[in-house]
Amino acid sequence: MGDELEAITYAADHLNHWRRIPGAVEWLQDQLVAEEAGKQILRDRTGFKVGDAVKVKEGVNDPDFGTDLSGWQGRISEIDVEAEDESPVLLIEWDSQTLEEMPQEAIQRSEREELDWTLMYLWAEELIPAEPREEQLDRLEVIWRLSRPFLWEQMGEQGQRIQAVLEGISNEDELAQIQAWENYLREQLTFPFEAEFMEQGQGPLKLGDREKEMGLMMWTNSSVGWFK
User: Fold this and answer.
1) What is the tens place of the pLDDT at every residue in 1-16?
2) What is the SS3 assignment for the chain?
3) pLDDT score of 85
4) Is residue 81 pLDDT above 80, yes or no?
5) How far apart are CA 106 and CA 67, in angstroms?
6) Are 196 and 205 in contact (CB under 8 A)?
7) pLDDT of res. 53
8) Closest Cα to residue 74, out of 98, 49, 57, 90?
9) In whole angstroms, what is the distance from residue 22 CA to residue 173 CA?
10) What pLDDT digit, counting tens, does each position of 107-144 carry?
11) Which end of the chain is more exposed for a tag (fewer CB within 10 A), N or C?
12) 145 φ, ψ to 5°?
């Protein structure tokens, strides 16, 4: 789904087409009225609406890891009401300040288990209204910066070994990454040794072919980030 600006642009570009179809504009108006009525029902049941800034009440814990969420703050991006006799569930997108204060262990564990640490579902009664503290761009920049150290976590144990080799090296510095891998492999490997070709690519070798590896050669062209 697009944002409000996209909707306005679409309406401006296609309004004449809607007017040519009998009953189309009236149908659209009915849909808008029904949507607003649905939003009012949610506001009446929860006291909140999508876009509201909220804060987690004292004593509320993360349902996945048990982390204390007291005082964490964000905005409501979704309200889910499945039945009239059930408490509404709200999807909260944590704001940049909350993300900055989030324990690194929580981010790392979430990345490892492929959970989204930037948002969370909570019951409406676990939240109170709050004043917004940020612009959306700030939040996106923070998410990118905080997630970079854990880019390999979803690969499990193998990803942790990769992360250990590249520890302290910027993800944008390809040459430094190549040098780190070369240093690591020179320490771990004893040449010559025989290797099996495991992935098909360009060149004469086919899957299952074996060849003797005599050493490492690093490519220094910045547009090519690997060695063989």
Assistant:
1) 555 556 556 665 666 7
2) CCCHHHHHHHHHHHHHHHHHCCCHHHHHHHHHHHHHHHHHHHHHHHCCCCCCEEEECCCCECCCCCCECCCCEEEEEEEECCCCCCCCEEEEEECHHHHHHCCHHHHHHHHHCCCCCCEEEEEHHHEEECCCCCCHHHHHHHHHHHHHHHCCHHHHHHHHHHHHHCCCCCCCCHHHHHHHHHHHHHHHCCCCEEEECCCCCCCCCCCCCEEEECCCCECCCCCCCCEC
3) 57
4) no
5) 8
6) no
7) 95
8) 98
9) 60
10) 988 888 888 999 999 998 999 999 998 676 688 889 98
11) N
12) -65, -40
Q: Can you tell me which residue has the tokens 């040794």?
A: 193
Residue-level pLDDT at 225: 37
- Residue carrying the six token digits 């980030």: 225
Question: What single-letter amino acid sits at 58?
Answer: E
Residue type, 14: H
Amino acid at 191: F
